[in-house]
């Protein structure tokens, strides 16, 4: 199973739409995971019309997105438990908040966003995966998005582009 992973799209403030390179990945994927900060309900609806989507609301999403998606969830695909959260909060770093949020949950992967910085780390058998942002690179040298291949093992990949 192939999953395209995006976060922090901030449409239309940071980009007019999702870049073509991301749509090419989505076309060959089975699922989209969006880790929050769509900022456009239209984007959520459009992505849902293309492929199945799992996602959460970010700190910049309005009540319509929050009510539909919530702030944290655990889903199961291809035998793996995937936690999804945006990662915003007051105390600690983004990764510290994310790890704390799922400390008592059984997960194989945790997808998160908020920092706009691509990140992947295995910790105690759990993959922590942030795809960065395809539209707002902030302090990162390039835009990015992620893919997860779920088979006999979890194969994460971050794609960087200008």
Please specify the SSE layout and strand pairing:
Layout: E1 2-6, H1 20-27, E2 31-34, H2 41-50, E3 53-55, H3 63-69, E4 72-77, E5 80-85, H4 94-101, E6 109-111, E7 119-123, E8 126-130, E9 143-150, E10 154-161
Parallel strand pairs: 1-2, 2-3, 5-6, 6-8
Antiparallel strand pairs: 1-9, 4-5, 7-8, 9-10
EC number: 3.1.4.-
Keywords: Metal-binding
Cofactor: a divalent metal cation
Account of the 3D structure:
By secondary structure, the protein is an alpha/beta fold. It has one domain: 4-Layer Sandwich (Purple Acid Phosphatase, chain A, domain 2), CATH 3.60.21.10. Helices cover 20% and strands 33% of the residues. The protein contains four helices and ten strands; from the N terminus they run βαβαβαββαβββββ. The chain has helices at residues 20-27, 41-50, 63-69, 94-101, and strands at residues 2-6, 31-34, 53-55, 72-77, 80-85, 109-111, 119-123, 126-130, 143-150, 154-161. The strands form two sheets. It has a five-stranded mixed beta sheet, with helices on one face. It is an enzyme of class 3 (hydrolase). This is Phosphoesterase. Its EC number is 3.1.4.-.
Short description:
By secondary structure, the chain is of the alpha/beta class.
